[in-house]
Amino acid sequence: MCTWNFVSSRLNKTKIFKVRKFNNVHNYGVEERMYTQRHATSDFIGYLIQDKYVDPKTVYTPADIRRDIKKIHGFDVNYMKAWRSKEKALEMVRGNPSKSYTELPNYLYMLMHTNPGSVYRLEKTDDGSFLYLFVAIYALIKGWEYCKPIVVVDGSFLKSTYRGTIITASAQDDAGKIFPLAYSIVDSENEASWEWFFERFRETYGVREGMCIVSDRHESIAKASSTVFPSVPHCVCIFHLWNNIKVKFKKNQLLMKDLFFAAAKAYTIEEFEHHMSEIDDLDKRVRPYLLKIGYDRWSIAHSTVNRTTTITSNIAESINAANKSARDLPICPLVEYMANLIRDWNYENNKTAMYTFTKLSEKYDDMLQKNMIKSHRMTVKPSSYSLYTVLEDGMRYVVDRTKEHAHAVDFRRMKCRAHMRWQL
Length: 424
What we know:
By secondary structure, the chain is of the alpha+beta class. The chain contains 15 helices and 14 strands. Strands 3-4-7-6-5-8-9 form a seven-stranded mixed β-sheet, sandwiched between helices. A five-stranded antiparallel β-sheet has the order 10-11-12-13-14, with no helix packed on it. Helix 2 (42-49) crosses helix 4 and helix 10 packs antiparallel against helix 11 (269-282). The protein is elongated.
């Protein structure tokens, strides 16, 4: 081990340094010293490792950098230099976060040029700084008319240098696939940003019959949607609502959970009231809490629109999971990542549709096959062209094909129950 060392310190608050200790004796030869003490700048190391960060999903930490530099190039790098090297590599691959905002108008122009008919809106502050961005690709705008009119919205925090929030709106197509509609970059989830987003969404997509907005219980979403879409119901995700109940009411949560979801998914007022009375037996505070929120916002039986199977915000959560690795990108690479994500999803969905030879998609065809197997245990007696009586295990189901759902009456107990809605 070499004994050479040098120690100095500053004199009081002056700019003068005093040498405290100096040992000028080297135990190693010149060649050995040059070999073991080679240095590399963070810029050079960043150049060596930049390929590691081309894919945003790749996790390559400073510890990984130190390990690989030692293994491949044979010299040690301390943690801080490895961290600076990572920052240099990220800037080489993704660009400077600040300059990315300057380049945004040019990128959006090219995005619109390569996707004619697309819509983007860029909002700036009075001093010309970035404020909001809204993007809707033409393929999404065109496909909206073939989707269910249930729009699920959500926001997620960005982890880039300047932070912010990405807002997404999505629906489901006729095959039950997730269909992104638009996305927006805003400063945060507040009433002003949500209202701006909904205004741009309405300009682009308009309002359809039976339309409904589904989200978590963020107050800003509820206020903004009622302002921009006064005639469109705003419903809440039942999983988010359950989490609120779980935090607020601690009693009998395991039993309460099953009863709450049963009440939310009930198709008749009678079945809904039956489960709510069971909830009352567990905790009488829950009903007033749910009544204040509004039954029509979470209960299928009370819903003023046909929400089909979209009673949660799961499709928005799926989009959040898909863009998770891109949320620390500068704004231009983030917008490009979202455009590529949408392109890839549309391509895969189109390819699946081309190789589907059933009348329904795979998802709904599987549901139909399972229901068909269950129907073998039933006896069907037609009363008219549209009215049928279905007998199963002592239950009598009156099915009217002109109605959205049917009722089942058990004549042994004279109690009305709900029959599952056979609507896809």
